[in-house]
Design a protein that fits this description.
The termini are far apart. α2 (about 25-30) crosses α3 (about 35-55) and α4 (about 70-80) crosses α6. By secondary structure, the chain is mainly α. Helices cover about 70% and strands about 0% of the residues. The protein has 7 helices and no strands. It folds into 3 domains: about 5-55; about 65-115; about 125-160.
Length: about 180
Amino acid sequence: MQYSQGFKMRMVQRLSGPDPISANKLAQEVGVSQNSLSRWLRQAANINHFEKTYEEHSDMSAKRPLDLTPEQKLQIVIEAESLSDEELGEFLRRKGVHEAQLLQWRSQIMNGLSAQPIKKSKKTGSEAKKIKKLEKELQRKDKALAEASALLVLKKKAQAIWGDEDTNTPKKNGD
């Protein structure tokens, strides 16, 4: 009888999972021969061994792009930049990455490089008080300077309109 791959996987899971049962007991329970169950278990063990070996020797240890570390994503983006379109397709298939993900990672890298946050230094209490005092004094001096400047402008305007007080002006009564 032909069994589905999903059925075989469930049987292997029951044989090797968290609460494993013997192949004889499972064979009686589900009506499958003990030899078939044991063969499925051996095949699954060989597949798992092959996958682990492949991961150890593969240049990409994570199975999904979501499992990649930022360093791995950066490495993929850097490697992809130097490839032609034909090579890029093969490279992305080998890495298991879609082109859209590559473009997204490239964008994130560029945004990270261009938008560097400005770090504010933490001032001690005495430094903060000193800065506040100096800023207050600077404001006071700016106000005084603005006032002196305004008085000079007014004095020049008054001289232009009425003339200099020191010069002799003719009086109306003829003295």
